[in-house]
DNA sequence: ATGCTTGCTTGGATCGGTTCAAATTTACAC
DNA sequence: GTGTAAATTTGAACCGATCCAAGCAAGCAT
């Protein structure tokens, strides 16, 4: 059946005794061709083992793939394993499903030629998950000359179409919640501020961070705490990367002579790791220490205790992002979407 | 800048004063063209705002997309939400990453024309997750005349290239484990046996099930239990679908005058739902009742208590599936991959 | 019969590149 | 200055369809 592989529309047309144009119509606009001709062509096609119009041929003409690519500077498994990415992908999927749009996964880790990557992915546009290496990702995508929007972009660059959240406002909400409960001794368990960093940060390091996401959250915490009379200098900020660095940070925080009564965590992931560490040490949440996360991933609802956190409206972010790509109407400036505070059981009034 | 959209290779070639062929080489085989010519063409291209060779044009010639599609008769969010699918996708991702292959998600729920679906997805082949509606999915895919392998196919059909697991052997392992612990009263908490069914099944209904996955697991349980002197008739089999039907089934099981001391669950998902129900009822696992799952999803390790289960070697399944597609060497007959028993804390000797 | 619609068919242009045999240029030895 | 091999460049053919202006036949009114 080697022949099958090479049967093309033109062959069918010739065999059926009609023109290529008519044969094409039989498949893509059946209503314009006379019934008996259509039947005959269809029969011939089947007999020859023709598998319908080749997608690539059609594509070349149409120019539209009907799919959007989602890219990150992470291995592809990231899309299925990272809680935030997964939740976001599920929302993006739902929007795509509704509009009959396909999704392709792209990992920007692999930059060899001849492989599937940002340069070669067959898509109509990109949604970029910029949690890490966002700028590099944007740069690569620009070359493709396709519409794209950056999500969770950690840098301020007016020229990049971005849909984001107001990190300062979100962090402020988290801080206000704890302050209103009566907490006055805090520590910030941060995410990444600059390429590969970890450990206790100075005020100066925080303000000059490479990643604005972490910086803004820190600023949001500080600003709100100041309103409650808590001096920023008294609130240590720890930068973290992997699980080990998170655990090291929490350990450092609680090694202090007067440990905090509340932890401001810059992501649910770090919050959950911290809670694990606390449980191991016999420290109870929220009795001994309160903790509030950031992101609002599913896991935060199911943890023990359920984590109070700032939840991102992922569905809305997904909707706007997909729409922007499909309509080739990417936002000219950063779109900000409001956050909400979900109060659960990891926060309570401080002891005494 | 409307012009930009239409700058093509031929334009650049003309402007730079070289032939289309040379211009093409500049981009796809830069080493064959003289340095100064290459520089010049590149400069011209940049000046004209040419965004590199269009992927679709190249595709038409090359014929290879460098991506595989993963399809299921589920909304696309399924790939990110269902524990089994997610775990499998992560493994498939890893294999694809290693070979520079892209992944596209396809939902066969949406069968309108003009949308991204099995007929139109730009991929080199398909991996089908046949947990539900597997046959329909296979049929649709056949029309595409592309290589494909079915995973978790629930029917016996020698003509379908399938990579699967030995459900009978796996179920036997689960049953042996419980029997060796001393259990003699069992109930089977099943998955789907036929389109939309639920509730207690007769022996006859089990044997004539539409989905061989469920049937084989039931047979595996029965067969091994018989070796320990437990009559199949004494082991009720409940079919389940959604969470409500699972809960109803467990409730029915424990409403019996002499409830079982051990539950054989046909998937980790039903096992976890059952454990939730048991906890609500104040029944302790494994003290009051032992339970063993099937699949070996991540959640089963993290549950309270961790679930004893039959784990599927998803990494191996993924590897074989992807390789089969990439090399266009789909198995001619069903490939079976061995399972292992992971003994954790949800099983123990029966009381008294 | 003639003129005018209406409805299907046709063939060639086009989408945007890649490929390869042949032509041309360059390099080098004699 | 000439011959030959090696390095580049060219131009036409091709990938597999869709699109569209133009052609043609049948149907209908006058």
Question: What attributes characterize this protein structure?
Answer:
homodimer; 352 residues; alpha/beta; 434 Repressor (Amino-terminal Domain); Rossmann fold; 3 domains; 7-stranded mixed β-sheet; 6-stranded parallel β-sheet; DNA-binding
What does this structure look like?
- Two copies of one chain form a homodimer.
- By secondary structure, chain A is of the alpha/beta class.
- Chain A is 42% helix and 15% strand.
- In chain A, the strands form two sheets. Chain A has a seven-stranded mixed β-sheet, with helices on both faces. The first copy, chain A, has a six-stranded parallel β-sheet with strand order 2-1-3-4-5-12, sandwiched between helices.
- In chain A, helix 13 links the parallel strand 10 and strand 11.
- The N and C termini of chain A lie far apart (82 Å).
- In chain A, 48% of the residues are buried.
- The model of chain A has no long low-confidence stretch (mean pLDDT 92).
- At the A-B interface, helix 4, helix 5, helix 6 and strand 2 of A face helix 4, helix 5, helix 6 and strand 2 of B.
CATH level-3 fold name of the largest domain in chain A? Rossmann fold
Q: What is the string of helix and strand elements of chain A? A: HHHHEHHEEHEEHEEHHEHEHEHEHEE
| CA radius of gyration of chain A | 27 Å
Largest sheet, spatial ordering of strands of chain A: 7-8-6-9-10-11-13
- pLDDT average of chain A, as an integer? 92
Major beta sheet summary of chain A: 7 strands, mixed
In total, the number of strands of chain A is 13
The CATH architecture of the largest domain in chain A would be 3-Layer(aba) Sandwich
Q: What structural category characterises the helix and strand content of chain A?
A: alpha/beta
Please indicate the count of domains of chain A.
3
Fraction of residues in helix of chain A = 40-55%
* Quaternary organisation of the protein chains: homodimer
What portion of residues of chain A belong to β-strands? 15-25%
Low-confidence blocks of residues of chain A: none
CATH superfamily of the largest domain in chain A: Response regulator
Task: Kindly report how far apart the N and C termini of chain A lie.
Answer: 82 Å
Largest interface, counted with CB-CB under 8 A? A-B, 50 and 50 residues
How many DSSP helices of chain A? Answer: 14
